[in-house]
Specification:
Blueprint lengths: L3 E2 L6 H6 L4 E2 L19 H30 L4 E7 L3 E9 L3 E11 L11 E13 L6 E11 L4 E10 L5 H17 L5 H9 L17 E2 L10 H26 L6 H20 L4 E6 H8 L4 E2 L1
Antiparallel strand pairs: 1-11, 2-10, 3-4, 4-5, 5-6, 6-7, 7-8, 8-9
Helix pairs in contact: 2-5, 3-5
């Protein structure tokens, strides 16, 4: 018998699972040993980039929550705010019959998180959009973008754009890959490294428990796209972010009413459980930073079956 585990119900689930797991999905990046140091940006340019980033993120909220509301015939939002020693979190979740759950985490970094580098953090924004269509024919979307600024004027960027399919519909996954590859080609860049990162994860991923994304998107948790130009890197990531999510939303709308089978539901169940396992035991940013009730409210599927 499958028992639904509704992970949006609060801290009581920690005891139920027998864990006190904490996942640091925020503050990815930072000053790390090895490799070239992060590029530096003038104080004036940092102010400009902060304003640009805030505007971009607000635009993503308006655009994609607006589309979700249209799909669901309206929307009611659950808003939560929380904070830790290292970060402030603003969470937004809506639920419906077509897009079963859409969740967003906007994180404002306060100071460098333990294990994420040695630089003195001055400004940070991390944005994660996680979408869970009702239909098992479309997988879960996980889309993140992050920019951080430090006291030495260095700036780091990152992001992750991918889909965790249940039932694999090759033409849909091929479309997302085509969107990604065409975007890189227009900018004269090669996606190979960033695709390898999404397919295999970073070196500190626990492979046994890792999420199972399609290799359609890319991970920017690696070398910056433009090694000496953080502005160009974050705007590159942002441009692909919008195009990738837009293509995913088109697929979700087109598949919403397609017939499916019990086998498709079973594949969705396995995928959703796999995401939870990844967040608990494999995510490479795992540390004692983001409380379970924060990230589970925002990004975990609406129902997990065991």
């Amino acid at each position: 018998m499958h028992t639904p585990l509704l992970l949006s119900r609060g801290p009581a689930l920690i005891a139920l699972l027998g864990i006190a797991a904490l996942v640091a999905t925020a503050n990815a990046g930072g000053h790390r040993s090895g490799g070239p140091p992060p590029a530096k940006v003038s104080a004036a340019k940092q102010v400009e980039l902060q304003s640009w980033m805030n505007t971009f993120l607000a635009g993503m909220d308006d655009k994609y929550f607006g589309q979700v509301a249209a799909m669901n015939g309206g929307a009611e939002y659950e808003i939560r705010n929380a904070s830790t020693e290292w970060s402030k979190f603003n969470l937004r979740v809506t639920r419906g019959d077509t897009m079963e759950k859409a969740g967003r985490m906007l994180t404002e970094g306060i100071k460098t998180t333990p294990g994420r580098g040695s630089g003195e953090l001055r400004w940070s924004r991390f944005y994660s959009l996680d979408l869970h269509p009702k239909t098992p024919l479309v997988g879960m979307l996980h889309a993140t973008i992050v920019m951080q600024m430090y006291a030495d004027n260095s700036v780091t960027t990152g992001g992750w754009l991918g889909v965790m399919p249940g039932t694999r519909i090759d033409e849909d996954l091929a479309l997302l890959k085509q969107v990604t590859d065409a975007y890189f080609a227009r900018h004269g860049k090669d996606p190979a490294l960033y695709r390898r990162l999404i397919c295999k994860g970073t070196d500190d991923t626990v492979t046994e428990f890792r999420r199972k994304p399609a290799c359609s998107g890319v991970s920017f948790y690696g070398p910056p796209v433009y090694r000496d130009d953080p502005e160009a890197s974050i705007k590159f990531i942002a441009g692909l972010y919008d195009e990738f999510v837009a293509a995913y939303m088109d697929i979700a709308r087109e598949r919403a009413d397609d017939p499916y089978t019990p086998a498709d539901i079973a594949a969705q169940d396995r995928m959703r459980k796999s995401w939870l396992v990844d967040q608990l035991f494999s995510d490479p940013f795992a540390a004692k930073i983001v409380p379970f009730e924060i990230w589970s409210f925002q990004n975990v599927p609406p129902v997990i079956k065991f």
